[in-house]
């Protein structure tokens, strides 16, 4: 396995952890088990999948309900993290 | 050398650390929201909050018109221990 040392694009990440590393600082949608969506810029995350986001918008049933400058989401509530084209 | 007062956010819990002694918004399971001063927290997100306003939101359906009636109950609590597993989201006050 030759490591080119180049920046890996998200699509070529090999493991889920590689993917998560590669999307820091990118706009994402985080969906919780409750069905609520959070759209914002992923600041960082940890092994529990706790998430820190910036410029976060909270969508319930597709409707914007709230905005947070910074927010912390407890990892156990996370269903998925998705990148968005912007 | 990194100090306790380091202002950078390297992991999500740093965001909470930077909110110590500040007013925070906490979203909990069961349509509950808290606003209060963060006195202490741990890695589970167990938290001690002071001067807390708890808001409980309930949605009732009118039996005749089927309209959703949203009711909110608020109460003040001087001190609150919050168990971490009920926490969904924590948001610090807006920093300029």
UniProtKB/TrEMBL annotation, chain A:
GO cellular component: Lsm2-8 complex; nucleolus; P-body; sno(s)RNA-containing ribonucleoprotein complex; spliceosomal complex; U4/U6 x U5 tri-snRNP complex; U6 snRNP
Entry-linked Pfam families: LSM (PF01423)
Highest taxon of source: Eukaryota
Domain Sm: 15-86
Annotated GO MF terms: RNA binding
Keyword tRNA processing: yes
Keyword Ribonucleoprotein: yes
Keywords of the record: Cytoplasm, mRNA processing, mRNA splicing, Nucleus, Ribonucleoprotein, RNA-binding, rRNA processing, Spliceosome, tRNA processing
Localization in the cell: Cytoplasm; Nucleus
CDD domains in alphabetical order: LSm6
Gene3D superfamilies: 2.30.30.100
One annotated GO biological process: maturation of SSU-rRNA
PANTHER family linked to this entry: SMALL NUCLEAR RIBONUCLEOPROTEIN F SNRNP-F, U6 SNRNA-ASSOCIATED SM-LIKE PROTEIN LSM6
Protein family: Belongs to the snRNP Sm proteins family. SmF/LSm6 subfamily.
Name of the protein: Sm domain-containing protein
Native source species: Chlorella ohadii
Lineage, top ranks: Eukaryota, Viridiplantae, Chlorophyta, core chlorophytes, Trebouxiophyceae
UniProtKB/TrEMBL annotation, chain B:
Residues in Sm domain copies: 11-96
GO cellular component labels: Lsm2-8 complex; spliceosomal complex
Keywords annotated in UniProt: mRNA processing, mRNA splicing, Nucleus, Ribonucleoprotein, RNA-binding, Spliceosome
Gene3D superfamilies (UniProt xref): 2.30.30.100
Origin: domain of life: Eukaryota
Main localization (coarse): nucleus
Similarity comment text for this entry: Belongs to the snRNP Sm proteins family.
Protein name, per record: Sm domain-containing protein
